[in-house]
Amino acid sequence: MNVWFAGGGTGGHLYPALAIARAMVRADARVRPFFIGARRGIERDVLPTTEFPFELLDLHPLYRAAPWQNWRTLVGGVSAWRRVSAIARAAPPAAVVATGGYVAGVALQFARARGVPYVLQEQNSFPGATVRWFARGARQIHVGFPEAAALLRVTSRTEVFDSGNPIEPPPEPRPLRAAADAVWAWAADAAPTVLVFGGSQGAEAINRVVAAWLERGSDTARRVRLIWSTGRGPYEGYARFASDRVRVRPYIAPMTDAYAAADVAIGRAGAMATAELAAWGLPMVLVPLPTAAADHQSANARTLAEAGAALLVPQSGFTPETLDATLRTLLDDPAMLDRMRRAARERARPAAAADIAAHILTLPTLQ
Length: 367
What we know:
Blueprint: E1 2-7, H1 11-27, E2 32-38, H2 43-46, E3 54-57, H3 70-90, E4 95-100, H4 102-114, E5 118-122, H5 129-134, E6 140-143, E7 159-161, H6 177-183, E8 193-197, H7 204-216, H8 219-223, E9 225-229, H9 235-238, E10 246-249, H10 256-261, E11 264-267, H11 271-279, E12 284-286, H12 296-306, E13 310-312, H13 320-331, H14 334-347, H15 352-360
Parallel strand pairs: 1-2, 1-4, 2-3, 4-5, 5-6, 6-7, 8-9, 8-11, 9-10, 11-12, 12-13
């Protein structure tokens, strides 16, 4: 059973598709995933390292700031349509699963034109443009945040599931705290551990504030241990902050030992990162990326803050002083941290990938 997966540009679109594809193969060995991506996206680097066949298309987004460049979008769309048509002639898809990004648009339009059932997975609390546009014809829509469902226009033929975001769930049994601390070679004390991370590229606005906070050497900074993932590019500029209480890394993968060792996490409000933090029951201090499409990270952070799982700090107000005050407030109030942990776990859907796969496999064309 050939199933197309379309989603990319960023890891936030690609990794959910990979998680669902793997879950479908585990559930039914007859499933043959095929990935459709763009030459410009992260999938160019990631898909060659996976077990799945794929095709990278010469696709371009809409150039809103430079509309005279949109001829590239049009030409790329025509060539992509021809290519997916050829792929379908060789091995017709039984279904299309799309996880967002402009690359998904071509596959979804092809599915709509040819009567192939398609499924959407929306990671954010505010649905992206591709998901909103194609929602009416979808057989299934799986939302990472339940709040997203109310913002989608669907028909009676569409099933909408509050599935959560498909992540790699925490291992069972979970690593013991002592074992996680040993990985980071901490001294044998009971200091709370703060995890700071901003993805593979890092979050420079967060990095600068953390660096200034450490340089000032406040009582709070001396009181905690810090696991700090700076991003590969900025790493050399921050490696000097490593000490017996600060571990600086360019990138952490897998994140298991970092999550298991942390008491509080500070980072952006991307859908997949927050889904992982919720699954681990980690209180979050979220600094949304203000330039994210449709400001969706702020929407994610507000949703989690309203649920009691996170504190939202706008980037414009994220300073060494606010960082220090926020951590001091959390660390001085164990009851508040416990409430945030419980609220995070209540939002968690660690089995999301398996649940989504099971629902997709009920499509008549996959029977």
